[in-house]
Write a sequence for this structure.
């Protein structure tokens, strides 16, 4: 670690970080898992979902966008934050239309996995049952907006990793939705199933056609271990 | 000492959750040692005539009959446990919730590609369909939720035994699933 390394604490554990890291990056490197949905390590952080909310010197902040600083006191794994994060996950469920039993993302979906990790037995807030438009016009990729959580990963991946501009947001508030760069549907955009954007969705909103249900139940990523276990394993291994 | 009474109910679901209850295999013998079954599709007892300790319900609420029977369960059961995605969220039947009921009926009984001389069923004996399929907790108070489609036999067995013993319900990670 270079001499300008910074030292701070997460839940009382001392963490060393590079000065240009965010709290999320430093925590990941130290084997401490901070729950997140819109963050992806290959993308610039978007700061959309707030699931990564931690307290920095007592004030709530996004771990995925907040830079580290010497001596900051970060709270992460507390009952209070866990409850707030669970509320966000619950809202995401009832604001969309999530039929997990018939969804091809089930078992590998990060929204569902976060609900499991945060011990949400079932959403109990009132369901909104919004009318959302499905786009099946692309030969190789589905866009099932029922399952969209507006995390913006596809938007960022298309620009930052694929050098394209296939996805964007339109409208605001409850009307906000994911849009594609063609009035006639995703089939008329330059999206390829090989694009990173096509497979970076944390939910089953963007899925590659003819790939559903290939992994048997019991062998899917989050069937046996909670999301974040890979990061925590690093710590256990030292 | 008399054994605790358990009732089970089926609303808008596929009976898969009840199948899962039978999937506890030979532990069903342990269970009948511990409890006595009252109203349930398993023994075909159709009416409540005494208070019941635990009610276990499968399926969401899609019609007037479901509402009536679910309210009856709430009235007779001290503890009401909803099991499975249909009861907890509406589940697969709730896929109709984003389509107006009239359009659903029209497609199913009048305009569908295999229909000849269709009519929308209107026999007065039939329960009235609700505008949507509702999760049980939006109709009556539910005390415990067991997710899954269906919840596994292990989940159901562990949960029922914990309830009977008055233990805290601590299900291991791999038993809490939405599918
Ligand atoms: S996207 Fe995830 S949460 Fe939504 S239905 Fe699919 S598996 Fe369930
Ligand atoms: S389509 Fe997927 S990746 Fe894109 S915003 Fe919606 S949930 Fe996020
Ligand atoms: S939750 Fe699944 S298994 Fe249970 S009744 Fe509904 S569809 Fe059937
Ligand atoms: S992961 Fe930080 S705001 Fe979404």
């Amino acid at each position: 670690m270079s001499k300008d390394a910074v030292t701070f604490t997460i839940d009382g554990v001392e963490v060393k970080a590079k000065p240009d890291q965010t709290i999320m990056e430093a925590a990941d490197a130290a084997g401490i898992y901070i729950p997140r949905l819109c963050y992806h390590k290959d993308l610039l952080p978007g700061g959309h979902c707030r699931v990564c909310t931690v307290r920095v010197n007592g004030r709530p902040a996004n771990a995925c966008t907040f830079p580290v600083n010497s001596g900051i006191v970060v709270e992460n794994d507390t009952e209070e934050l866990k409850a707030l994060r669970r509320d966000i996950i619950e809202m995401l469920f009832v604001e969309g239309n999530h039929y997990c039993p018939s969804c091809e993302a089930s078992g590998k979906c990060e929204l569902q996995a976060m609900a499991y990790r945060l011990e949400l037995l079932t959403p109990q807030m009132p369901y909104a049952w919004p009318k959302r438009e499905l786009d099946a016009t692309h030969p190789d990729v589905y866009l099932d907006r029922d399952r969209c959580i507006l995390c913006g990963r596809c938007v960022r991946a298309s620009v930052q990793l694929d050098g394209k501009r296939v996805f964007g947001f339109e409208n605001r508030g409850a009307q906000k939705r994911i849009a594609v760069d063609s009035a006639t549907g995703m089939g008329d955009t330059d999206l390829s199933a090989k694009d990173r954007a096509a497979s970076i969705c944390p939910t089953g909103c963007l899925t590659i056609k003819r790939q559903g249900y290939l992994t048997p139940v019991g062998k899917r990523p989050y069937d046996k271990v909670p999301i974040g276990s890979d990061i925590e394993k690093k710590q256990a291994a030292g | 000492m008399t054994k605790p009474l358990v009732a089970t109910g089926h609303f808008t679901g596929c009976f898969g959750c009840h199948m899962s209850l039978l999937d506890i295999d030979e532990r069903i013998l342990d269970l009948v040692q511990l409890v006595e079954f009252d109203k349930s599709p398993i023994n075909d007892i159709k009416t409540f005539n005494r208070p019941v300790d635990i009610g276990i319900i499968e399926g969401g609420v899609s019609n007037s009959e479901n509402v009536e029977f679910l309210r009856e369960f709430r009235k007779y059961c001290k503890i009401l446990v909803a099991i499975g995605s249909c009861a907890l969220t509406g589940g697969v039947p709730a896929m109709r919730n984003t389509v107006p009921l009239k359009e659903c009926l029209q497609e199913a009984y009048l305009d569908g590609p295999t229909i000849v001389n269709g009519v929308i069923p209107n026999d007065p004996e039939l329960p009235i369909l609700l505008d949507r399929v509702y999760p049980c907790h939006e109709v009556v108070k539910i005390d415990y939720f067991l997710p899954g489609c269906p919840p596994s036999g292990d989940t159901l067995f562990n949960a029922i035994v914990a309830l009977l013993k008055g233990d805290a319900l601590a299900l291991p990670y791999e038993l809490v699933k939405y599918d």
In short: Helices of chain A lie at 23-29, 79-95, 110-117, 153-160, 221-224, 229-236.
